[in-house]
Amino acid sequence: MSDNRTAMLEKLADLATEQEKAVNAGGKYIARHKERGKLTARERIELLVDEGSAFLELMPLAGWGSDFPVGASIVTGIGVVEGVECMIVANDPTVKGGALNPWSVKKSFRAAEIAERNGLPTVNLTESGGADLPTQKEIFIPGGRGFRDLTRSSARKVPTVSVVFGNSTAGGAYVPGMSDYVIMVKERAKVFLAGPPLVKMATGEETDDESLGGAEMHSRISGSSDFLAVDEHDAIRLARRVVARLNWRKEGDTSVASGSSYAEPDLDPEDLLDLIPTDLKEPFDPREAILRIVDGSGPGNEVAFDEFKPLYGTALCVGWARLHGNPIGILANARGVLMSEEAQKAAQFIQLANQKDTPLLFLHNTTGYMVGKEYEQGGIIKHGAQMINAVSNSQVPHLTVIMGASYGAGNYGMNGRAYDPRFLFTWPSAKSSVMGPAQLAGVLEIVARESAEKKGQVFDAEGFKAIKEMVETQIEEQSLPYVLSGMVYDDGVIDPRDTRTVLGICLSVINNQRIEGAMNFGVFRL
After folding, report:
1. Which domains does the chain have, with CATH numbers?
2. CA gyration radius, the chain
């Protein structure tokens, strides 16, 4: 077994441990929840999606490293319901009653963004006590966006469904209140702006849960519920029937889904575990990854990967391929640094992808753009700007996978989170920051040395050594994938061997809408 594989397997084992924290975030309350005859959030999702279909969970590590449980008290992802790809958002009532904390809000916003940009109907599996009150100042103002997103989705003729299993109080009452279709579980659902104690305090009125906001009341009297379910299983059955009747059609290319065949990769995806060096300073050939992710050669796809401009700007590998039958353009770092040639090559390739309405996949392993007098005089800034201009104004869908390093402006040029990729995933080997830890600490040392010299002081190199080591450790920790995933800077940390499947699901989702490339780009500084 290679050292690279051993290191990656250790990272994957650690990843499984961290993801398990999200699954078991409710702790002892999971057993209590089940004793009440209730399903967990993930059990509800499993029953909702089509049998045998995949559920692509998104942002499972949201909140990692914070004061809140991993997963941020909601489960989000894309699943197929009655043949329709849907964004599914399920409150986890075993975690503080499903109360929403700041990371829950950020995670739900990202889920809504994915649904909007890809034209996905949304199914909310609702059971939440509302906002986590101790952190209300971080939730209240931005939280209203969630209700706005629901109504705007409806206005775009993209349906929203809410299934209420338990509490949906205060602001949470507006989730079913603003959904197109609402299902409530008999004797379980409680939907009201204020519960009986608050009503009594505010108005003096004596009331109870059922008459104030129970499922039967809303189904028979207020009309806020469209369907009354006898239990949770019945509620999920009704939700599936609602989706089945949406008359939903994909607007994009459906030729792949309708049965066109494709070959499995020419090289074994299992070998991706051997690819990434334990030291990210060591380069690796991204073609080895590409040929283990894209469709293999065969009838209708004579070459697995058609490389474009292979002899020019060789630190960046670009070309055309198919993935689960979908045409795709790929940009992958062949060596860490990006120079003028690579930037110009990327800008041209991105324009070509937009000309023929082809999605783009960015595979990161970059230390950024080249620095130095020779490169500045050669126009590295304007050439890098050309690449960033092309990325920024490209209108075809972008997918991003951070395999190794993703430092500095290289993260921007390779379509990092700030550039709105439709989906962004990281491998356990990934690292992202303004620059490498050693480089950043070294820069601070140079600045401190120059500052001391200007003041006529003797620079204490030995004393600064401890500071330098502390900075390196801090930056190393902050650049790790769990930290970035916890801050919802990616859509999940994935096993490299799952990359092809994950990207295949994403490409299918993208095809819910027509793919149209950009007609115009900003001014390219030549």
Report:
1. 3-244 (3.90.226.10), 269-434+479-510 (3.90.226.10), 437-478 (no CATH)
2. 25
